[in-house]
Amino acid sequence: MEDPTPPILRPRSFVTRGRKTEAQARAIDELLPVYGVEFTGDRLDLDAVFGRSAPRVVEIGFGDGENLLTLAERHPDRDFLGIEVHGAGIGRVLGESSLRGLENVRLVRGDAVEVLRTGFAPGSLDEVLIYFPDPWPKNKHHRRRIVQSDVAEYVARALGPQGVLRLATDWEPYAEQMLVVLDAEPGLVNAAGAERFVPRPDDRPVTKFERRGEGLGHAIFDLEYRPASHP
């Protein structure tokens, strides 16, 4: 059933960029029908998508898929749905998922905001991951950042009672905005306490985005939120 709430008009949090290799383009042609999930605006039937009932993890903007692939290999008992718009990353994850024989990975190629808005039943997700999203550092582009009040509301609605939202960024001004936005969402509770970050989770894979940020001398900021209904 589609969410009757009209979408909030906002600039997209992404621009299409990057060129696919021949192998990535071939993977999209051959493997997207296998691992891809077509999103039409209606609610996704995740049991049908994965062919089973299992804990569900959604990663928004998975980039080159390093984190998504690592977690899927580590946790075959969980299902991982990645949402991305960039063809290069999608092609890489498709190819690697096939090569590694991962049966618990599925991909949506589309706008994560729209998928979050209408694609998930209330309480249907166990984890939502937003790692190193585009910081859109210029003031005039801040409205493009994925972490805004609408996304906070959609995630809070989609998470189950035991669910968790995890975020990380190496851009301090964005980290501070994340705190302001997410602390203000009544459906979410900061696991570290208001206006505080959590220590880096031991099970979060180190990706090239994190290594690049550290190489530039940036601190890494991790955030964790639980549903307000969390026992």
Quickly list its features.
Rossmann fold, globular, 231 residues, alpha/beta
Write a compact overview of the structure shown.
GO terms for molecular function: tRNA (guanine(46)-N7)-methyltransferase activity. The protein is an alpha/beta fold and 231 residues long.
Helix and strand sequence = HHEHEHEHEHEHEHE
Level-2 CATH architecture: 3-Layer(aba) Sandwich
- Could you name the CATH class? Alpha Beta
- Average pLDDT for all residues: 90
Question: Largest sheet at a glance?
Answer: 7 strands, mixed
By CATH, the topology is Rossmann fold
How does the helix and strand content classify structurally? alpha/beta
Number of domains: 1
Q: What would you give as the CATH superfamily?
A: Vaccinia Virus protein VP39
What amount of the residues lies in strands?
Answer: 15-25%
How many DSSP H or I helices?
A: 8
- The tally of beta strands, per DSSP, is 7
Q: What is the alpha-carbon Rg in Å?
A: 17 Å
- How many angstroms separate the termini? 28 Å
Please mark out the parts with pLDDT under 50 across 5 or more consecutive residues, or reply none.
none
Query: Biggest sheet, strands in spatial order?
Result: 3-2-1-4-5-7-6
What share of residues is helical?
25-40%
Organism: Leifsonia poae
EC number: 2.1.1.33
Pfam family, one: Methyltransf_4
Keywords: Methyltransferase, S-adenosyl-L-methionine, Transferase, tRNA processing
